[in-house]
Amino acid sequence: MKFKQLCLIAVACWLPLSTYAEAPLNPTAAPARPKNIVIMIGDGMGPSYTTAYRYYKDNPDTEEIEQTVFDRLLVGMASTYPANVSGYVTDSAAAATALSTGFKSYNGAISVDVNKRPLTTMLERAKQRGLSTGVAVTCQVNHATPAAFLSHDESRKNYDAIAATYINTDADVILGGGQKYFTQPMRDEFTAKGYQVLTDFSQLDAVSQPKVLGLFADVQLPWSLDEPEVHRLSQLTSKSLELLSQNQQGFVLLVEGSQIDWGGHANDIAAAMGEMDEFAHSIEVVEQFVRNHPDTLMVITADHSTGGLSIGANGKYEWHPEVLHKMTGSPETMAAQAVANEQWREPLSASLGFAIDDELYSKFEVARMQGKKALTTAIKQEIDLRTNTGWTTPGHTGVDVQVFAAGPGSELFIGSQDNTDIANKIISLMPKAKAAK
Ligand SMILES: [Zn+2]
Where does the UniProt annotation place the signal sequence (predicted)? Predict the structure, then answer.
């Protein structure tokens, strides 16, 4: 309904323009240029994720289905296909390259073109224009999405090589996981260059000035579902905003809900909804910042969808997210605990929020004997059955993704577009480069 209304408004707005197609744009009608830009990427967050999240958050005690932050900010859709050589279904590297540079490339490319030549990234452009830059993510900071905003490499898999380039990015804020990719000598280099190097999440609060390299896990941060009260991504986001906004010229910040995708790859609806909740919370942090700083543009999208998530499955017209509300952790963590304990039936039942009858007990016990991975799978299958959730693949799918925006210039993102258009629109809104001295 809301999307329809937006489309109608969009059509109405564009009508006078098409009538006077030859006339120059009225400068007063042109969108104001934002000073600050926050681009937020829900990795793997296709339309079925934001829809599932709405029902996951619905208060069953009220007649109405409550709106989410996604319903509130929706403005358009974007296609995600990579360069021709990689077909129609993108990976995160090609999609992030498109969103960061405005050019399509092959799956696996980190801001290089199909001939492996570097493409200027959004954060590099921001630096050239005197803006501050940052990334705040829940994966390792050198994973595909943040890497395509900070670096260039012919393969996303070259984690060490990508990490080694970060010292030269001049980024003001780099927050996420990935300690294992930054050796002590590398960390010392950052310190020598004036960075505060953090490895403990509790250190973040005391930081009051850029620059900062925060690596809060060996690889990725923990599943939100295991510690929802910590709100790690929200905290990283709000600290990034606080630090970057000290630059009077403005800033460009990338925030990624990285592990929505990992929940999708694992076909884990519980973990995926936990990550969605934390990403939504982080969006609300930025939305509040935009309210207080009307010169800030926020644009949110996904790089692709993952897992072929379906709300309803097996021919049944039902979906039961309330099953997930009783869970007190991720299936992975529950399985690890059950494998480590001989007396696992009662504790697992308590964490899942439903009784484990004899039939399910034998099924879980067979899986448990095979180890954590098999038990995690068995738990996820049981949750899929009870929620009536469907999946078609452990990989990505090629559906279009949604675009959400608020702030000056946000009207440019209304309607249908390509992922490269998102980058080109953001780049066109960035302040002009400072005159060379
Ligand atoms: Zn993925």
Answer: 1-23
